[in-house]
Amino acid sequence: FFYQKADELDSWEKQLKRLHSSLLNLVSGDNDLANAEAGLSRSVLLLANVEENTGLAQALHHLAETEGHVADLHALQAEAHTCHLVEYSRELLGMDVLSERVRIYRTWKTAEANLRSKREQKIRMEMAPRNDNKKMATITMELEDLENRVDQAQHKFNNISINIKREFQNFDLNRFAYFKQATTEYLELLLQIQLKIDFISLSLYADFMHIFNNNMVF
């Protein structure tokens, strides 16, 4: 079971790292777009302030305001990428539960090796022509301590194995629901942002037509 899961996690981690990297690039692109639109908004506003034609100045003010709103929405979109997808993929990448099991296993086996070494040392002392009772008592106490450490490490290893297996089984059952929730929330927010951008764009178009028709800029 654990060998199979280790292979699955290795493959999954490679794909998630690619996804995580792509999402970070997406967030960076949205932030760059938001910053560019904010810069455009400021530039258009400066142009509007020096424009002598009243109608054109009014249109430029509307354009600057609209670009500012769109910049805010794209910044919100970048935040949506981060909150709903980047953090989700980062959380999955953090599922390195098997490494803790490996660490505990190594601790257990190290304790067993120390116990074997100490037992061999005791046997050699028992076979020696002269037996130092004081040293023998010390080694006996050390053996008891090492035996307790081995038992504790083995118990800890068995417990974490059971818990990890249960955790994997629960995750296998629920991972589709987790992914569905993350992507649904993300897409709903993305749709709301896009609808707001569409509404702002249509409002700008209507304002432009009204200003141009009334002032006959063209």
From TrEMBL:
GO terms for molecular function: phosphatidylinositol binding. GO terms for cellular component: cytosol; endosome membrane. It comes from the Eukaryota. GO terms for biological process: early endosome to Golgi transport. PANTHER family: FI18122P1, SORTING NEXIN. This is Uncharacterized protein. It comes from Schistosoma margrebowiei. The lineage of its organism: Eukaryota, Metazoa, Spiralia, Lophotrochozoa, Platyhelminthes.
